Amino acid sequence: MAGILGILAFDEVWNVSKFLYYGLIGLQHRGYSRSGIAILSKDRNISIKSENVAPEDLEIREMRGWAGIGYAGIRHSYPLLFDNSAVVVDGPVKDISIFKQLMKDPEKTIEESIKEPITFIALSKDGQLIAYRDELGLKPLSLGGFGFDLAIISSEPTAMYVIGAELKREIKPGELVIIDKYHLESRQVKTPKKAYCTIEYVYQARIDSIVNEREIYDLRVKIGEELAIEYPIEADSVIGVPETALPFAIGYSRKLNLPLDLGFTRTGSPIRTMLASDAFLKIIGVQLKLNPIKSAVKGKRIVLIDDSMVTGTTLKNTIFNLRKLGAKEVHVLIGSPKLISQCPYGVEVPDEKELISANLDDKTIARVLGADSINWLSLEGLFKVVGHTNLCLGCMTKKYPW
After folding, report:
1. Which of 7, 74, 229, 390 has the fewest other C-beta atoms within 10 Å?
2. Which CDD domains does the UniProt record give (predicted)?
3. Annotated binding site for Mg(2+), which residues?
C-alpha cells in the first residue's frame, strides 16, 4: 500500500515543497513508515529526500522547486532517481530499470515493459509530470488542480483537500496522463479490465475520499445497513472501531434503530494496525487508538463492528478491554468478507497461514477472540452495496484478476 502524489506549477516562481509535504500527510493513512519527496528546481536539477519516517516527520525545509512528486508507504524507498527523472510507485515492481526509458517514450514503455499492475507518477528534468494508472484500476489515482496555478495528481483526493485544491476527475484504468507548464495530454494506453481493489472500499481509503466514483463514507454506511439486514442482533449499543468502521456502525444502528455509542477515545497519533510492521506495534497501536469508554460499555450487550480482520490480534485485545470494563456481551461484525489469502499486488494482507479466517471456523474464532459471536459481510452483500462485480477479490476468494 502506498500514497503517491505529484504537483506541477505553471509558473516557476512557485515553491511546491510545502504543498507536497501537507499533501502527503493527507495520504499517510495509506502508509506511514516510509516517505519521500523529489523536487525540480529552476536550474532543472532534481533533489530527493527519502527517510524511514511518517510524512509529517519528513524534513523538507531546504527543498525548493516548482514541481515535485511524493510518496507515503511501508516497504519501499521512493522516489527513485534516474539520469533524467524521478518516480514514485504504488504496487509491486520486479524490475525498476523499466523506468530508465520512460521519459523517452512513455507510451511504448508502458505497453512493452510494464508487466505488473502498477500505478506511478514520474517527474522529468524537463518539467513534465507523467502518471499512469494500472489497467485493472487496482490502485486509485485522481487528477486535480489549485486554481489556474497548480496541477495535482494523487492516489486519493484527500491530498488535494488538505491544501485547498479541487478534484477534477479520477484517472481511468490504463490511462496515461502527461502534464507540463503548457498543456495536459491524456492517452488510453491499455484497455481497461476493471478489477477494483475491494480493500480500498472497506478499509484503505479515507472516509472523506472518493474512489472509483464512490463516496467512501456513503458506501460504508450502506455496508453497515447491509450488515443489519444479514445479521440483526439484539443489543444495547452499536460501536464502530475508529476511524474506518464508524460509518459501518452508523448504518447498522440506523437500520435497526439501535443506540450508537462512541465506545473509544484515542491517545497519541493514529496508527493503522493493518499496516503495522510487527506484532508489538500492532498491540501498542490498539492501546493508542482504542481506549474504551467505560460508561459506554459497562453492563451492555455490544455489537462491535470492524472493517476487516487479519490475524485477529488487535480485535482480541479490543474485546478483552471491553470485557474488562464490564461489557455483558460482545458480538463482532466485520464489514468485509473473510480474508483467506495474501495479496500479490501490494496490499498488506499476509500469507494464508497468518490469516485467522483461513485457518479456523467461525465458532473457534469467536472463542479465540473472546466474542459471543462473529460474522462477516457476504460477497453478495458487498456486490449489492458497491453496485457491480468489477472487483479484485483475490484475498477473499483466492481468484486473482492478473
Report:
1. 229
2. PRTases_typeI
3. 244, 306-307
